[in-house]
Amino acid sequence: MPESVRERLIRAGSATVANMLLRRGLRNTVMAGVVPLAAGAPPMAGPARTLRFIPAREDLDTLAGYASSENLHRRAIEECPPGAVLVIDAFGSTAAASMGDMMAARLRYRGVAGVVTDGGYRDAEAIRATGLPCHHRGNAPKATPIALHPVALDEPVGCGGVAVYPGDVLLGDEDGVVVIPRELAAEVAEEAADAAAYEEFAALEIARGRSLFGLFPATPESRREYDQWVARGRPGRK
Amino acid sequence: MPESVRERLIRAGSATVANMLLRRGLRNTVMAGVVPLAAGAPPMAGPARTLRFIPAREDLDTLAGYASSENLHRRAIEECPPGAVLVIDAFGSTAAASMGDMMAARLRYRGVAGVVTDGGYRDAEAIRATGLPCHHRGNAPKATPIALHPVALDEPVGCGGVAVYPGDVLLGDEDGVVVIPRELAAEVAEEAADAAAYEEFAALEIARGRSLFGLFPATPESRREYDQWVARGRPGRK
Amino acid sequence: MPESVRERLIRAGSATVANMLLRRGLRNTVMAGVVPLAAGAPPMAGPARTLRFIPAREDLDTLAGYASSENLHRRAIEECPPGAVLVIDAFGSTAAASMGDMMAARLRYRGVAGVVTDGGYRDAEAIRATGLPCHHRGNAPKATPIALHPVALDEPVGCGGVAVYPGDVLLGDEDGVVVIPRELAAEVAEEAADAAAYEEFAALEIARGRSLFGLFPATPESRREYDQWVARGRPGRK
Amino acid sequence: MPESVRERLIRAGSATVANMLLRRGLRNTVMAGVVPLAAGAPPMAGPARTLRFIPAREDLDTLAGYASSENLHRRAIEECPPGAVLVIDAFGSTAAASMGDMMAARLRYRGVAGVVTDGGYRDAEAIRATGLPCHHRGNAPKATPIALHPVALDEPVGCGGVAVYPGDVLLGDEDGVVVIPRELAAEVAEEAADAAAYEEFAALEIARGRSLFGLFPATPESRREYDQWVARGRPGRK
Amino acid sequence: MPESVRERLIRAGSATVANMLLRRGLRNTVMAGVVPLAAGAPPMAGPARTLRFIPAREDLDTLAGYASSENLHRRAIEECPPGAVLVIDAFGSTAAASMGDMMAARLRYRGVAGVVTDGGYRDAEAIRATGLPCHHRGNAPKATPIALHPVALDEPVGCGGVAVYPGDVLLGDEDGVVVIPRELAAEVAEEAADAAAYEEFAALEIARGRSLFGLFPATPESRREYDQWVARGRPGRK
Amino acid sequence: MPESVRERLIRAGSATVANMLLRRGLRNTVMAGVVPLAAGAPPMAGPARTLRFIPAREDLDTLAGYASSENLHRRAIEECPPGAVLVIDAFGSTAAASMGDMMAARLRYRGVAGVVTDGGYRDAEAIRATGLPCHHRGNAPKATPIALHPVALDEPVGCGGVAVYPGDVLLGDEDGVVVIPRELAAEVAEEAADAAAYEEFAALEIARGRSLFGLFPATPESRREYDQWVARGRPGRK
């Protein structure tokens, strides 16, 4: 993913990007119930690599077997490319951890952009300390093999009620995680950056006491005022 | 699946079969929240064939596209072998239907043993009229493409919080749906049939006023009494 | 509402009607979690009259005050026109009853078409005995003033997550309750009746062993076959 | 409990009895989410005997240990007096069964009035066949020791969010289960029977087309009419 | 609302105020599941102005139509008086935002005391930055018209399971949001301030090692000690 | 509980301790949905003393009666030994507070190690200020007698879905609360401390870019490397 696309997405933010997707008729692009692990953590943006879990079975998912070199959970950690976002379909279950602090540290070292699950993590404190951007549904302290079995990498999955196809672009920040169909990423990034820039203008106007009517959402007249403000060098911008 | 295995499983019932799996250390074999569509419907038993859904996306899941001959949802209906149980992983969502009455009628005609989903069905009334044994979580009246996208056949899936591997044997009746690992089906069927036969004996004893203590669960002494009762030709059995 | 419209809607059924609304871009027209009170009860169809509840307050909602002639709950029962469907917005709460058996008997006598709430009823047994078609979320045995306060009649409300504007047409049957915007009722009824008639044809074909592909959903060719079947007098129809 | 009290309670029904308790300031006497196992089953009324469960632990709750003669679960079945209602506090958990069909048959034989749990039962079909009145939250097919450990008999417990003190009178029917503080049972039974008798009169009036206003809830005038109707021998009563 | 009333309420805190309402028989005055948006934000107190949402409909709630000058959502923002608390009935739905950062900035500028919804907000980060006191149920990042339709201003509504009548006084702080019937606000403020003052005394006593018995809740003797402590000039008070 | 045991448990952390219990076949030792009240609060470890609540009843649980010297809720606060953890079974209910700030201050003064409930607390702000380590499910601002009745001390209870027997050792930190059967505490503490020490080594290796495979989980080879690292004086350790 080009750095310019990444930059624009992060600056626009997940809520604005979701609005751009809504304009294209996509109404279900923000993961439900998925929140950042750490308040104030940096945002994440990157193409998705997926890992799918199904429920565990006591004979197939033992602590011993979890150590095998074939284990898909740990292969996901070792193979997710730098700059990508690892998306874990845990079918919403916090009955066991989708990831722990050792895995988070390894992902951080390897340059992965972030992790998202609709399950949860263990060792939340230690994971925050790695600085890796993470989103999840809630705490899941039990060891993974108690309830989760890794079954496949790089399939289309669901996560937080949203479809994620490998290569789709994920943007995660304080407001949540939005999934952008891969072929739309560049144009959506550009449009969202424009919308965010307009919102900077609108925020300044509101701070001066202007009413929302005729300002936000934009009207043709307010777009013209915005263009003039841009032409003047965006005065007042932080 | 041999008819003798099928017969024993059905006579034993899902609750007893689950007990046999518990003895083998498998504690999570009964689907959560999954109930029969019709009270009094015949039970189902057969090897699993799976269909996996993920959330829909408005551009990929249109009513028009749903009519395509490649559509995996309808391929599942057309390709599920006679005697098998179609297991649909709808990740617990009743936001749209996993199946409707036309599909149920087609499955019935093709000799499929039954359908299980952790989502729901539409046209419940008409589906009951087909006589096809079905289990689901609850009513799901909206058209499938509103919320569900079929992504793969014959993968390991989760359904109602239980792992289902293709070929695992499903038994569904009034008490729910239990999943039997494929390699255990024959021995579990035999053990469950024996446990169910013992329960017939125990029920007769209870009807005569006998206490549960020393009778149920069985003790070595009560097992001997049972053997004698069998030797006598199972007197009193309905 | 013309009798022809009512008849067509009932024959088509709520699931088919919901499909027609989906074609018009309306994806959220079926009430969530709302089920018939009685299995096998007759369906209901009619224009909506609404009653809105908010949470009760102990000083405003006493058993004594509940007897007042101004009480909006009982005015709703006395004023709902014959042939209309009374829609009760109980904000999903089953903490107290939206209706009891006396009210149901009175509505039945007055010729009201049915009642829908996203709360629940008390005296379920006695209500069934009146024969009044009813839908609700689940049993709510406590007296209304314990948790519910009637605040207005004939406002736009929400019920089961769907918007209901006074005059919208409600159709409720075994599959649930669908809300049809008032101005669309006649054309949707006609379209749904046609779709239901096509489904009769398709069901006969499936019973003869025909595959779903090329039959359901319909294709231009299968629609031509259907036209021929109609021309021949719909042979085989029950 | 005197037969006259039992008879009045059953005839009045749980919803009316709950109204009588509301008049005494008791607003939380009906168990939440607890429903009859069998539609159309006879009602139950009797003094409560309690059994309290806590979560199971794998080392303490084995299938083998479950067979012990000390097991409190089975002692509850063997010691609950005839005419009492066995109340099982399963802290709302349907993760395992509060009771199965063998236990139900034994309770039935022993003349226990009924069973209530805020968990669930297994072998629902077979339990219905015993004719024992039962209420529960929902199906719970797994064996008890998987998730439940019996810890005490005859303690004050919670069940379905309502306090149950040993000796409190439980009334369970189609509308749910209401808990009557033991010292109030006789007077509440009498008041409820009177309220129910008034409701018979009101139902007849409604069937003749009379409005709810001035009839239900009762007014001093309508009570006088009722007295006259009683004096005339309750004409029209079924 | 007089400044003295506001001051007392804020100092007493929502939990203490709820206790005072409980003494008056009002048991349901604290909104369920409603939490502050920002930890450490200043509290809010003021008379309620209400906005009621119902579910959206795709033909009535478009992004374009959202820009109309009649839109009740934005009228609520422009018309809520300074010092008032805007109460938004979103029927508990976080499917779309009850408010975003532009609206929050505008409300802040206009001197509104705070916002409460039983839905959620988008742009949480930016809203916190405005300093406007806000409470909500949880994050709701999707654009309002996706799921919410504003239907009326200044009606009685429900919010978080509590009735809110226009003019009722809302107090929101770290512990939640309590709703005070308008006619009770002054006397409750005074009583709560007294209770809070007593709690300061009790806290000092506990810090010196005194037992709760005979101190908290207060007894006649401990009230006399408190009076003496007040007479002595409240020594030890921070 | 010996200080050495306490120290080891705290250093290992609840997630690692839960792993040690899993090795012994105990899969359900971490309380579900129970979180620390304050981010960054110190951890707690100590033997459990229990308090069991059942639902309140308006005639038994009055504000006046709550002041009685016999009240078990306040006896729990006064009698819980220093160094113990008070475990409150509130059957998951946040309808009223399990504890408030006065009680927390008293417990802190008395040297109790911490409090855990599967209900919630009121006065969260003030409780945090006491510095007492607390865990709960969520905010519960209403006064205790509104919904909770204290029925017994020092019984076996459930809390957050886990069995707690008096004397079991509780460890609570950022990751949650784990319950250690009393007879296992010493050996589990030792094993967990060893596992935590190994994790320090593994974390250093990961920071140097080493793969998870062959490192975490441990293998016999990596354990030998660990032994050498210990022998060398644990170089690099913070």
Molecular structure report:
- Chain A has helices at residues 3-12, 14-23, 72-79, 101-110, 124-130, 185-207, 220-231; strands at residues 35-36, 44-55, 85-89, 97-99, 114-117, 120-121, 134-136, 148-153, 157-159, 162-164, 169-173, 176-180.
- By secondary structure, chain A is an alpha/beta fold.
- Chain A has 2 domains: 27-180, Glucose Oxidase, domain 1 (3-Layer(bba) Sandwich); 187-231, no CATH class.
- In chain A, the strands form 3 sheets. In chain A, strands 1, 2, 3, 5, 7, 8, 11 and 12 form an 8-stranded mixed sheet that branches. A two-stranded parallel ribbon of chain A has the order 4-6. The first copy, chain A, has a two-stranded antiparallel sheet with strand order 9-10.
- In chain A, helix 1 (3-12) runs parallel beside helix 6 (185-207).
- The two termini of chain A are 28 Å apart.
- Chains in contact: A-B, A-E, A-F, B-C, B-D, C-D, C-E, D-F, E-F.
- Chain A binds chain E through residues 13-15, 18-19, 22-23, 27, 30, 35, 173-176, 178, 199, 202-203, 206-207, 209, 211-214, 216-219, and chain E through 63, 66-67, 69, 74, 77-78, 97, 100-103, 105-106, 109, 122-125, 139, 141-143, 146.
